[in-house]
Amino acid sequence: MSGEITASLGAIASQALTFTQLNQIQAQLIVFNSLHRQSYWASRLISSCTRLRAPPYYARLVFGSVAFPNVFVVNSMFRYFSQMDMANDALRLYKQRSRCGIMPDAFSFPVVIKSAGKFGVLFHALVEKLGYFGDPYSVESARKVFDQITRRMCSDWNVMISGYWKWGKKEEACNFFDIMPENKTDAVSWTVMITGFAKLKDLKSARWYFDQMQEKSVVTWNAMLSGYAQNGFTEETLRLFNDMMRLGVKPNETTWVIVISACSSRGDPSLAHSLVKLIDEQRVRLNCFLKTALLDMHAKCRDIVSARRIFNELGTQRNLVTWNAMISGYTRIGDLSLARQLFDTMPEKNVVSWNSMIAGFAHNGQPALAIEFFKEMIDSGDSKPDEVTMIGALSACGRMDDLELGDWIVNYIAKNQIKLSVSGFKSLIFMYVRCGNLRAATQVFDEIKERDVVSYITLISALAANEDGIESTDFLKEEETAKERDIVKD
């Protein structure tokens, strides 16, 4: 078939004005070597069916003529079902195609979510899991599909807003929320906005959206609580939790995990005791997730007896988080023998397991064992060292005053392209200062883009101790300027 005829048929198909004309075009495709069985032409025909609102039997006939329809044909059929308000058929198609290994993409998921109605949140979670909003092209592709939907459901809007937040497009997410019809917004819409701002650490805006909501579900409360907790605002987390309880909103499992984790960060035994008492009063059913959170809280509050009791109760329900929390608890109180015993007997290890042991040895007067563990970690190949690993190893080198070993670790960081944050750079400064290489410490200090008071104090103390008074005075002046800058910023 010549290219001219192909182009001609394509143009006619896109311009067909009636169902009769569409039938005639399909007949011509059948005549020309059964082209109607090809995915490209089937997709074009189904798109015309959508535009002309052709009878369902005809659209199904076209779709069924392709033995192995590709994702484009499937997407065209999804759009047809959406246009015809045939939600059950769309979900049935999703189920059939998934079994065949043809999963929806960024073009078709909005249709599936819309068709799922109240169960759309399940498909929304699948969108996140599969990473369809992992690049800007996917978001824009979804936007094109959104623009084609004539009767938009709340779930359509929510998927788009979530996609924009996923890619960090705050302005687009906010604009979409602002133009969203008021009767289309629901708890999910507001919660997506709260979560989006919280991830950007803009808790003031997150709280504004939270306060504007007339009816808040427990999921919404959890989103705001999580925003505070994950950004280190323990007091605000607990205050909001108290408001939640006062208003009679019943916490769920997620709520309790968030609040327990917030208490863990405080490391306050009396606060932990009060929370456990409240949990008992509320008769909360403790599953393995809640027990693990409580174990971690007790361990961080140095109540190792309570932590171990929960650890023993969990039995076969223990997971990596449980083991790591218990190991960390023992290293925190300096019981490296029991920590090592657990480490050696745990069924599997990850980078957190190794990091707990390395940091534990480094901060409990056994830096040589910390380095031994670090080398063993590299040789085992079980887990790839990260920045936390390097902080522990550098700390151990500093305590050993071993500059040669420190340089080896620095080379390892560069060779394996491990990115360091301010905490990592501070560990480097500490190591060089302890090893007496003030020039290298100063060079590292100069590389830090966002310096804090600890960075200045570490270097100033080292310079002063080595009788470099002039340079330490210069850094002291710079530190005062930095403090004033931080005060103005706050």
From TrEMBL:
Keywords carried by this UniProt record: Repeat
Xref: NCBIfam families: PPR
Record protein name field: Pentacotripeptide-repeat region of PRORP domain-containing protein
PPR repeat intervals: 70-104, 186-216, 217-251, 319-353, 421-455
Alphabetical GO biological process terms: RNA modification
Keyword Ribosomal protein: no
GO molecular function terms listed in the Swiss-Prot or TrEMBL record: RNA binding
Taxonomic source organism: Eutrema salsugineum (Saltwater cress)
One Pfam family from the record: PPR
Gene3D superfamilies, sorted: Tetratricopeptide repeat domain
